[in-house]
Amino acid sequence: MKLLVIRHGVAGTRDEWAGTGRPDTQRPLTDEGRKKMRRAARGLRAVAPRIDVLASSPLVRATQTAEIVAAEYDDLPFDTIAELSPERRPDELLGWLRAQKPGSTVAVVGHEPHLGFLAGWLLTARNDSFVDFRKGGAVLLEFDDPPAGGNAVLAWALTPRQLRTLGEAE
């Protein structure tokens, strides 16, 4: 299995959003964040030409990012799953991952610091975050066996700028 881990695109700031009186879960991508994420999604497709399954955190900024990624992959359907919520433990995603078809390319969209801990745990089986996910950045993890803590291999990690550059070349 290949696991493409994507951090949501640029959203409005928490401080600005707090003034709206609405919960942070509804904070959307900015117009510039959408534009940058569309270019990054083109770059993603250049380095990961196929996604079989796409899932997102239920928070608005993540689902909007997943919509952009899905559009780049020929309107791939996606699910929102609670296991990608920022307050969840990284190992809580394991059951969902193991339910996916072996050999598939699975993509998930979520938040920091959750994604950093998820990648760290899948790579080392330790509850450490050492992968820096910038907004709109991504990593590709590969598993020979069913996913478990400590059995992933890091194939690549790309910053949002690198993905956008790849997207401009397409």
Give the strand order, joined by hyphens, for the main sheet: 3-2-4-1-5-6
Radius of gyration: 15 Å
Described by strand count, sense and barrel closure, the largest sheet is: 6 strands, mixed
Contiguous runs where pLDDT drops below 50 for at least 5 residues? none
Global shape:
globular
- Average pLDDT confidence is 94
Per DSSP, the total helix count is: 6
Residues in β-strands, percent: 15-25%
> What is the N-to-C succession of helices and strands?
EHHEHEHEHEEH
Count of individual beta strands: 6
What is the rounded distance between the termini? 26 Å
Helix content: 25-40%
Please state the structural category: alpha/beta
